[in-house]
Design brief:
With about 120 residues, the chain is mainly beta. The protein is built from no helices and 11 strands. The strands form 2 sheets. Strands 2, 4, 5, 6, 9, 10 and 11 form a 7-stranded mixed β-sheet that branches. The chain has a 4-stranded antiparallel β-sheet with strand order 1-3-8-7, with no helix packed on it. The chain is globular. The termini are far apart.
């Protein structure tokens, strides 16, 4: 099994920065993607960013230029550096690991960490 534990969330003022971390345990394959999703009040869960070894990160349009995803395969840890935060970034952020099995996959999720951007 796979376990994902997020950390780094909290309260920050608009324009501030936060760095989220996701520590994975269990059987993690570096070739499989990891990423971050978020769910704001009244909205569906949405993709924030994903990254796969050897490729640049993919980002939602709303966070391009402000957020950066990175991955340390040796530590099985993925990070999300969030800069120039806006109130609309307020959400629960979830870490994701997608394990591919032939032509299908299984998604693993962390419990989520709250990010609140407010003055």
């Amino acid at each position: 099994q796979v376990q994902l534990v997020e950390s780094g969330g909290g309260l920050v003022q608009p324009g501030g920065s936060l760095r989220l971390s996701c520590a994975a345990s269990g059987t993690i394959f570096s070739s499989n993607p990891m990423g971050w999703y978020r769910q704001a009040p009244g909205k569906q869960r949405e993709l924030v960013a994903t990254v796969t070894y050897g490729r640049s990160g993919d980002y939602a349009d709303s966070v391009k230029g402000r957020f950066t995803i990175s991955r340390d395969n040796a530590k099985n840890t993925v990070y999300l550096q969030m800069n120039s935060l806006k109130p609309e970034d307020t959400a629960v952020y979830y870490c994701n690991y997608r394990r591919w099995m032939i032509s299908t996959f299984v998604d693993y999720w962390g419990q989520g960490t709250q990010v609140t951007v407010s003055s």
